[in-house]
Amino acid sequence: MEDFTLRKKHIFPINNTTGVFKLKKIVVIAFTIFSLLLLASCSDKKEESKGNKDIDVVEANKPANGNNKNNDSNNEGENDKKKNSGGGEDKNTDFPPNQDNLKIGDTAEIKTTVNHFEATIKSIKLADKFNDHTPNDEQFILVDVLFKNLSDEELALSEASGYFKVHETMERSGTSEISAALGSDKFNGNLKAGESMEGTMVFDYRKLDEYLLVAGTTLSDLNMMNRAIWKFTNEEVQ
Fold first, then answer.
1. d(CA 131, CA 182)
2. Residue 174 CA, distance from chain mean position
3. Under 8 Å between Cβ of 141 and 178
4. For the whole prediction, is pTM greater than 0.90?
5. Model confidence over 108-137: pLDDT tens digits?
6. 142: closest CA among 163, 161, 170, 158?
7. Residue 104: which residues within 8 A CB-CB, separation 6 or more?
8. In whole angstroms, what is the distance from residue 160 CA to residue 143 CA?
9. Residue 39 — pLDDT band, cuts 50, 70, 90?
10. CA pair distance 104, 99, nearest whole angstrom
């Protein structure tokens, strides 16, 4: 009887702690390996997603035609068009020097960003009436001028006469030419290249001892034309 009991204990041991421990250890190791593989997989997906975003950003920043040089050339072309369309800069900016000490009878070369002409002041008179109009100020100043178109393009006479003002000094604002408002149509036409025309500019101004007839009062300060100034006294034009 004792031999059978001993054999039974040997075949079916009552204490199985060592086997359970080994099984738990295997499960822990397997779970750890699985977790590491899962983390590695997630990391790879994140890197792939980031790489795709970077590619998208680069693609979005590429020029539509894939050529930066072409875009630069196009931009330069647009800038040139703007400069030549009256946007403050123009190809026609090689102006003659300013002429600030002219007298009655002198000729000035005047060049703007659009026009190029000569103006000769033939004579100046003072009057209290023009075309049946009386002055709002003290007198009319009548300026007999000869315009000659030096450009290859037509010269609008209204533009040529519109550059002129009469001043007391350059520090004070002047008065503009008003012959058209007084019924004169002398400066309504155009001059073709090389043509000349003589007409009378009219200014409504107070009586002074000395006057300045100025072409380019404001535009010369903006580097859009050169300036010409004729000086004359009240005695010269009586």
1. 7
2. 29
3. no
4. no
5. 999 999 999 999 999 999 999 999 999 999
6. 161
7. 121, 122, 123, 124, 230, 232, 236, 237
8. 14
9. low
10. 13
